[in-house]
Task: inverse folding
């Protein structure tokens, strides 16, 4: 075992004590896409003890250019991302314990997940700010350090959050840029650099007991990398880290929520998975790819449903209700 990690143990500022702590620690990774899969791979190769990975999606062909742990076999079979990650990680380092949670992380389950697994750190691998605010509020409430990471096109941001300032201090309201990776694209090196900086914050925390305290931004096109101290951004009236009101944990789940451009998701009765026998293009034990009303639909066995090529929650709801009606006839 010492030979396997010899090179990082010899790295100045790390050492055997840090390696031992890494190997005995649990990390909660929320999201198994471009950031989450890359972070998972690097932590597994580094000798992390236990990875708890949450994601509810399947591997698709458009993932492969940036989510490097997946391959064509995963996308052809529409394998659950968490299952594909567990399989690949086991081949990389069979000593790493991997727990998979094939669910969306929401206000309904995040606190129970944190309480059950008691991770050393939570790592953000999500692609939306609604979930990040939930992570921010839950982690502060439970005194849990976490690492925010975001990337789009050629730009990325990383910030390790321990207490103050929290994400809501930096971004009081959810950004409404109208952009996502389906519109603006995402370069693979951007995702990998952001994930690498997130893992650097993990290693800093392991070695020193705290994060770097810097907010790091990157621009891969202009080759600009900036890191700055943001203590001054602390909001003295922050509802999360000052007033401890935790507004994100009080929100109710929306019936239909927007994902990337042209994609909406919701949850229906898991019975639909068993009763729908038409419109099927591909299926396995946990997933069905449907073509219905000239739209692609992903239906998972846990009741999660994603509708493609719709551009409002009303349009998505109409398609889903029509599908349910046809399944009942």
Result:
């Amino acid at each position: 075992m010492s030979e396997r990690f010899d090179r990082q143990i010899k790295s100045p500022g790390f050492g055997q004590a840090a390696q031992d702590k890494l190997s005995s620690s649990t990390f909660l990774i929320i999201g198994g896409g471009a950031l989450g899969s890359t972070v998972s791979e690097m932590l597994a190769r580094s000798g992390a003890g236990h990875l708890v990975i949450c994601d509810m999606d399947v591997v698709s062909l458009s993932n492969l250019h940036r989510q490097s742990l997946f391959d064509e076999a995963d996308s052809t079979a529409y394998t659950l991302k968490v299952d594909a990650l567990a399989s690949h990680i086991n081949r990389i380092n069979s000593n790493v314990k991997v727990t998979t949670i094939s669910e969306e992380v929401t206000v309904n389950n995040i606190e129970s997940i944190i309480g059950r697994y008691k991770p050393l750190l939570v790592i953000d691998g999500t692609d939306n700010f609604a979930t990040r605010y939930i992570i921010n509020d839950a982690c502060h409430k439970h005194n849990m350090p976490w690492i925010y990471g975001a990337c789009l096109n050629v730009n990325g941001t990383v910030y390790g959050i321990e207490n103050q300032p929290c994400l809501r201090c930096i971004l009081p309201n959810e950004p409404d840029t109208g952009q996502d990776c389906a519109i603006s694209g995402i370069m693979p090196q951007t995702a990998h650099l952001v994930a690498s900086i997130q893992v650097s914050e993990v290693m800093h925390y392991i070695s020193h007991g705290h994060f770097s305290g810097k907010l790091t931004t990157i621009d891969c096109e202009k080759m600009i990398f900036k890191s700055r101290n943001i203590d001054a951004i602390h909001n003295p009236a922050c509802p999360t880290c000052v007033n401890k009101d935790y507004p994100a944990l009080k929100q109710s789940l929306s019936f239909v929520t927007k994902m990337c451009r042209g994609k909406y998701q919701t949850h229906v009765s898991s019975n639909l998975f068993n009763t729908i026998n038409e419109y099927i293009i591909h299926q396995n034990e946990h997933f069905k790819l449907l073509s219905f009303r000239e739209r692609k639909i992903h239906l998972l066995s846990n009741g999660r449903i994603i509708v493609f090529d719709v551009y409002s929650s009303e349009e998505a709801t109409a398609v889903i209700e029509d599908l349910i009606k046809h399944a009942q006839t």
